[in-house]
Amino acid sequence: MGMSTHAPTSDFAKEIARAPGGEAIYKCVQCGICTASCVVASVSEKYRPRELIQRILIGMREEVLTSVLPWLCVTCRMCTERCQEDVSPADIFHAVRYVAAREGHIPSVFSHAVDLVLQDGWMLESGYSDFIEDERDDLGLHTDLGWNNQFVRRIKEKYFEGGLTQ
Amino acid sequence: MIAKPGGRKGSISTSSDTALVIGGGVAGMQAALDIADQGFKVYLVETTPSIGGKMAMLDKTFPTLDCSACILTPRLSEVSHHPNITILSYSNVEKITGRVGNFRVRVLRRARCVHEERCSGCGNCIDVCPVEVPNEFDQMIGFRKAIYMPFPQATPNVCTVDMGSCIQCDRCIRVCERDAIDLNMKDKILRLSVGVIVVATGYRLFDVSAYPRLGYGKYMNVIHALEYERLINAAGPTQGHLIRLSDAKVPQNIGFIQCVGARDVSKGVPYCSRVCCMYGIKNAVMAKEHNPNTEVTIYYADIRAFGKGYEEFYHMAETRFGVNFVRGRVGRVLENPENCNLIVSVEDIAHHELLEVEHDLVVLSPGLQPPRSLEHIAHQLHFEVDDEGYVEVQNTFLNPVDTTIPGVFVCGCAEGPKDIPDSVSTGSAVAMRAAIALLHGGAK
Amino acid sequence: MREYLLYLGCTTPVRLPSYEAATKAVLSKLGIRLLDFKDVTCCGAQYIESISPRAHIGLGGRILALAESQGKDVLAICGACSGSLKHSKHILDKDKGMRREVNSMLREEGLKYTGNVQVKHLLQVLRDDIGYEHIRKAVTRRYSGVRLAAHYGCHVTRPYDIVKVDDPENPRVIDEIIECIGATAVDYPDKTRCCGGPLLAMDEELAALIGADKIKNVRGVGAEGIVTACVFCDIHLSQIQIGDDEVPESRVPIITLPQLMGLAYGIDKESLGINLNRISPEGILGTLQEGVGQ
DSSP alpha helices (H): ranges in C52-127? Predict the structure, then answer.
């Protein structure tokens, strides 16, 4: 992160605290146990959950919402288990994703997966090849997977009309 | 049957001039002395074979690095010789009825199988006993015999037989010149009548094996603070030589982990244990004193150095002794199977670095918890306990050592975690409260 | 006979049908009847969950209401699905507003969620409905002490408050079952760490690094195979070993728990889809001893 000045503000933290999953953000004491436990942090130089939460707390809204970092969390919840203050960084990053998505910041891989579910009712319609159908048949498994693709239209109407998220 | 207090032949104590102190740690001892010095009689009941409590186990105290035993031992002697104090050690309070001015207490005097008035504490019996078992006082590092004294200055200075381990070979009996040992001794019930009761039951340490991620119980070189205390204590199992339990090597790189079983919502202990930062720093400084070349690091979320001289002690640990302070709570501890060293994962927040640090010894600093015995006493006396299990006081500001039951007072860690000076202060405070209650027969 | 609606999720039927087949074969042998769960949708884990939490609950809620309408509980064998459905149930149970919202969407299908349905993961059914005793007794061919490492995956055991499956820091179910069927369960560093699978979408390289780390730790203790209970983990841990520079002999076989159990129960390899395992577990199978019952 570059050397620039930032005027701290609590507005963004308040916003995240109101979003689903972000409620506990004020309990964070910045102890770093989440980062020390994070599997993604252990293989990446840039991903640091504690620091990301710190950025939210001091109000770096633009930076956090446009960053790829909140999307790197694998939701393994090791941080949730170990946090001694009952904060779940994984849930906070979910709240960030929700807010970011509302403003159109979604990695293409996520929006693509969502599109597939909203269209077919599940994710792997295009991946269900004849070859795999045969494999299933050989195993004695039924080949008609019976996914419902009607309900997702209701879901789409209610939650995804007018952009990828409501 | 009302017991006669020691030292005053022919006098019968009445409840209005007698106090019961439950717990023989430093707070209970202080309360007993201050009540006794005012002319009242005191029964001091202690569940272990000797009074002295946790303080007797410690090596040095913060922030002055005084030798704990050196401060405590004169007090042990004072309590033991005070004409108004009767020590009932190796005993438990079983039942309490009545009210202020007239509590009736049933005490179980467990059979130590040694006649207290005959034993001189010479230790000949200990030398010949063939049975060795892990030593509780040394936190199960090192051994004691089936007949034993928990520590050299044990008070009363008599031996106790652990009948569960005794094989009844009678070697001790044969060598005792005072005929003090009786392996057929039975438990006795003592009924007391007292005017006031002081709860001074102390604390227990959080069981750190509740954190599998820190490796205690799995890796030999992960120990907790009280085990560390016994290792550096000259009267301990290694005569004060700090060594690793896996290979007896002197550690060159020690990591201290703070807030283990304290400030942890997920383990049901959300509160701060008050003393761990200071005893952790004290332990780190002691490691440096033992071996100045040792690398010593403390991993913490906050350092709470709140008392007189505490901040200066913290500063001195860093600048004069060279203890490394890393702000960052430890994620987990792994073992290097080749040398039993430990690998600690932590974010060094100040330097923006995610580290895996290798230590050859890791010491966990457990938080404090109410002792299990407190529940029984609370049940007997019906005083209120708080959410954490500590004794609730009448009023935090105006009546901080009175419990919610008249005539029952609380001092030391039974009320909440506190250091030695505060424990002693509250001991003196309850003595005054108890005396006032006794003078007025409970009317005040 | 205990019955469950088998919720497969998106991935298992297509990418790991052997897991489905083995689960059906083994649970049937152990006295659990699995019913096909038709007309469901994706549970919304990971992707929908991140973009619209309420859409996520909606999808989960309908699946649960469908099960409720059939009077049966749900067994999810994918870790992410089980965690996701449990999360949806948790929210629906405590948030009246959300429940009303979801039920209003379900009305036209005549469905309603009232909370009268449980979600279990495979490990829970094995431990609680069947029990270790029975698992041990049903063995007809024991593994002779082959060293196996259990990989639990993240969504199976965490967050404990919602999924309530096993101790998240020291899980034991797979290890106990491994021991029940005659193999030796070995511990290894960072056993409870994620396999890295969910990161594939965003950063393949990092995902591979995480998985490789786990394989290295498992190899380091001399384990001869990894036993999984989640489709995602199984696929990922296999996939990363099948790179250009991986020597076939040094690969650690990945095998799903029901496949491992099925072989000990005398179920044939074909029914368990063993031939579909990317890395052959022949080494593990070779340690099976005939006719050694309990």
Answer: 53-69, 79-94, 96-106, 122-124
